[in-house]
């Protein structure tokens, strides 16, 4: 058990007072012992009387005188003895009184020390009671603080779990929405892809039909002209007609256009290059539209014209309005 500084100081003061009282008593006893160390009780010792027998005749008067002197001395010795006895009695009475006073003082000191010790004990018990009450109060406060902290911890844990559960629900909802959006996007992409493929098939089919129609018309026109020209002329006329059908006239084109067009092809009729050569009276937009029309044709007639095939063919593109 830990003692407070006040309690320690009180104990030190009590021990110091007790030690001082013991030292005073021991000193007083030592003085008494030393003072009576060589003291002997007074004994009455009879004064020896010397008797001298003399002749009572002529010396009777001096002998009376001597007897008187001896009696006086004996009386003085007796008086001295009595004075010594009285002094010794008074000294013994004083010593007895001092012993009684010392005993009373010691008793009072012991009583005061007892009361002081009782007071110190009472203070100690009071201090111990206050310490226990303080310890109990602190224990209750600590317990209440611990319970509050535990309750706060549980509340924070519940809130954390609720936030985590809410977050998990949000994440699940976001994941579901993303997956749903992904499925919708994939479905939309699939549909768009199917639509694009269908459009591409339709375009290719339409282009093939248009190509077949252009070729048929060109062949019909070429067949009509073939009767008036050689096979090469028919071939060139077919190319010219195909280009004319593929041509998209720009807004700046005016009637009377005549431009020489050079076409580069490979066996099989695939066009790999087209350019405008002199003479040509068209503007730049018209020139570009003519070369673009040639490239849109893509493939020139080849079968049936193998004998007149040339890698480079130049023909005149004419627009009369």
UniProtKB/TrEMBL annotation:
Compositionally biased spans, kind Basic and acidic residues: 62-157, 189-204
Family annotation (InterPro entries): Tol-Pal_TolA
GO cellular component, one term: membrane
Gene Ontology biological process terms, A to Z: bacteriocin transport
UniProt GO MF annotations: toxin transmembrane transporter activity
Region annotated Disordered, chain positions: 59-157, 189-216
Keyword hit for Transmembrane helix: yes
Keyword Plastid listed: no
Residue intervals passing through the bilayer: 15-37
Keywords from the named record: Membrane, Transmembrane, Transmembrane helix
SUPFAM superfamilies, A to Z: TolA/TonB C-terminal domain
Domain of life: Bacteria
Annotated protein name in UniProt: Cell envelope integrity protein TolA
């Amino acid at each position: 058990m830990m003692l407070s500084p006040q309690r320690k100081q009180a104990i030190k003061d009590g021990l110091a007072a007790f030690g001082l009282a013991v030292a005073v008593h021991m000193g007083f006893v030592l003085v008494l012992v030393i003072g009576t160390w060589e003291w002997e009780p007074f004994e009455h010792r009879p004064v020896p009387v010397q008797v001298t027998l003399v002749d009572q005749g002529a010396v009777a008067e001096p002998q009376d005188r001597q007897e008187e002197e001896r009696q006086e001395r004996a009386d003085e010795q007796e008086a001295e003895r009595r004075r010594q006895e009285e002094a010794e009695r008074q000294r013994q009475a004083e010593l007895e009184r001092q012993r009684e006073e010392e005993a009373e003082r010691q008793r009072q000191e012991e009583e005061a020390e007892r009361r002081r010790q009782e007071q110190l004990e009472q203070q100690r018990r009071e201090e111990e009671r206050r310490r226990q009450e303080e310890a109990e109060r602190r224990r209750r406060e600590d317990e209440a603080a611990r319970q509050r902290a535990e309750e706060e911890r549980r509340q924070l844990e519940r809130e954390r779990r609720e936030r985590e559960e809410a977050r998990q629900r949000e994440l699940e909802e976001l994941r579901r929405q993303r997956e749903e959006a992904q499925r919708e996007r994939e479905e939309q992409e699939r549909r768009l892809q199917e639509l694009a493929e269908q459009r591409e098939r339709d375009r290719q089919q339409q282009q093939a039909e248009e190509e077949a129609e252009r070729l048929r018309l060109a062949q019909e026109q070429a067949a009509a002209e073939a009767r008036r020209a050689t096979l090469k002329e028919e071939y060139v006329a077919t190319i010219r007609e195909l280009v004319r059908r593929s041509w998209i006239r720009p807004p700046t084109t005016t009637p009377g256009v005549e431009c020489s067009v050079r076409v580069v092809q490979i066996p099989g009729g695939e066009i790999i290059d087209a350019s405008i050569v002199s003479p040509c009276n068209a503007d730049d937009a018209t020139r570009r539209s003519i070369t673009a029309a040639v490239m849109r044709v893509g493939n020139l007639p080849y079968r049936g014209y193998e004998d007149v095939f040339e890698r480079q063919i130049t023909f005149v593109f004419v627009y009369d309005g």
